Amino acid sequence: MNPVNIQVELTDQKQAYIIKNMYPLYLHDLSGHYGLQEEHRPNEHGIFEVGSEYRTLQDQYDVQNIWWGDPEHLYPFLIKVSGMPAGFAFVATPPYCRQDIDYFMHEFFLLQPFRGLGLAEQAAAAIFERFRGKWALFTNVAEKNKVGQHFWRKTVAHYTEGNYRESLGATADGDKMVFQFSNLTGKHI
User: Fold this and answer.
1) Which of 11, 44, 79, 132 is deepest in the core (most CB within 10 A)?
2) How far apart are CA 25 and CA 15, in angstroms?
3) Does the domain made of 6-182 have the CATH classification 2.40.260.10?
4) How far apart are CA 115 and CA 86, in angstroms?
């Protein structure tokens, strides 16, 4: 197999369309973890959004513009593999997340062809390295999300050398598996 070159790039409005093109695939992937919960199934127009006001993908794209509207607090990253779009990550800071953390991994996605190669872990670590502070991320606790739970447990454990907290807790998005760590000093939680 050829060596793989992974890049994690902060995007601006000019590149937003690339992430927006992948976003419905991300929502489709998430729907497999949640079953028929309303917020994770398509609406009457076939769009993975709650409510019938989202009729087209363009409507959904417009809602996502917030990620490129506040560059001091919201960070939309494009993940590329050998120059090709492979995924994305959204990182938020207060006031878009809890006030007791500095950075929150809001969304993280890697397209199917790039999974299972260690690329997602490399991308997550590159993003963590970019920002120093108290981090949090959540993942679904459902049995159908064992792969995601394993990925985050392994990724955070490797990155922090085991110095992190994992708990089950209530979030604004329901009960989740919560991972917290600090990379402020190079010594994690």
Assistant:
1) 79
2) 17
3) no
4) 9
